[in-house]
From TrEMBL, chain A:
The lineage of its organism: Archaea, Methanobacteriati, Methanobacteriota, Methanomada group, Methanobacteria. This is DUF2073 domain-containing protein.
From TrEMBL, chain B:
The gene is era. It holds the Pfam family MMR_HSR1. It comes from Candidatus Methanobinarius endosymbioticus. Coiled coil: none annotated. InterPro entries: AAA+_ATPase, GTP-bd, P-loop_NTPase, Small_GTP-bd. This is GTPase Era.
């Protein structure tokens, strides 16, 4: 790979897409070596579907799967009585490219290994 | 016994309890399944090893009955392959596998993960087995918990491998404060009595 391609996708771009459309779009991009940075997160069933689709697409020589990382923020609900985390950014990339990922509460740091892409 | 209690018991008897063991590869799911099966039926379910993805198909042990005084929990145990987002056959080479064998293992592991996810539709309770020596806040654990919550499936987070020196079950408690966390060592059976008590409450 000559360089690292990163695709940034706004939440508006995904709001009318079905779950399967979202997942296939992500997988197609990641299989081509891109790192997808999405505004917002996937639902639990979409995350399970993403893993399932990834497993179907793995071929042992060229595509070994994905790495998924998220950045969250605390959000209060029910008049501030309960707190939960909301995903603000989701990063999905080829597992053989996303080598080093360090995560702190407000910072996600990634080093890509371009020799494997 | 009132008529109402009679009806509840009737429904309980008819409802088959299937408890799935979920988690990362090498978190100790099969070791725990074997420990439970050995404690209550005297025999193992499957083989465990240090090589990731040793369990590549769902293993089922029907009719395990655990008892505590008058309490009784009758269930099938579903030991699922470890869930991961990536499988690189080259990682298996480090364990001494030949290349062909490693590639075959990787292919089988992908199918096993799909099967494990499909089983989420059929289990009535889950033991989420987490290796207490590792960071519990992973996409796999978050995905499993999110799906269990969305489907209203009761679950217990089992903080496994507390026999290891670097185990830190408190980290799991702090990461999942809203969930029931039970520290155990599936390998030597330490604190499994506590787990059985919690299982009565959660799954009965």
């Amino acid at each position: 790979m000559e360089g690292l391609k990163m695709d940034f996708i706004s939440s508006e771009a995904l709001e009318n897409a079905s779950s399967m459309e979202k997942i296939y779009m992500i997988i197609e991009k990641v299989k081509k070596g891109a790192v997808v940075v999405m505004e917002g997160g996937l639902s639990p069933s979409e995350r399970a579907e993403l893993i399932e689709t990834t497993m179907r697409e793995i071929d042992v020589e060229n595509f070994v799967g994905i790495d998924v990382h998220t950045l969250e923020k605390n959000s209060s609900s029910f008049f501030g009585f309960s707190k939960k985390k909301t995903v603000v950014i989701t990063i999905i990339g080829p597992a053989n490219v996303m080598k080093t990922v360090k995560k702190q509460s407000n910072l996600l740091s990634m080093v890509a290994d371009l020799n494997n892409g | 016994m009132s008529f109402f209690d009679f009806l509840i018991n009737l429904f309980k008897r008819n409802k088959k309890v299937s408890i799935g063991l979920y988690g990362h590869p090498n978190s100790g799911k099969t070791t725990l399944a074997n420990q439970i099966a050995k404690d209550w039926t005297g025999k193992d379910i499957g083989s465990a090893s240090n090589i990731p993805h040793e369990t590549r198909t769902v293993l089922k042990q029907e009719k395990i009955v655990i008892k505590d005084g008058e309490n009784e929990l009758d269930f099938d145990i579903i030991d699922t392959p470890g869930i991961a987002t990536k499988i690189d056959y080259q990682n298996f080479l480090e364990f001494g596998l030949e290349e062909d064998e490693a590639k075959e293992r990787a292919k089988e592991a992908t199918k096993g993960i799909i099967e494990a996810i499909k089983w989420l539709d059929d289990v009535t309770g889950v033991l989420l087995v987490v290796d207490a020596t590792t960071d519990p806040l992973t996409q796999t654990n978050i995905t499993i918990i999110g799906n269990l919550e969305a489907r209203n499936i009761p679950f217990i987070v089992v903080a496994n491998k507390i026999d290891m020196e670097d185990a830190n079950p408190n980290r799991i408690v702090s990461v999942f404060p809203q969930h029931t966390v039970v520290p155990v060592s599936a390998l030597n059976g330490e604190k499994t009595d506590e787990l059985y008590k919690v299982m009565f409450k959660k799954f009965n």
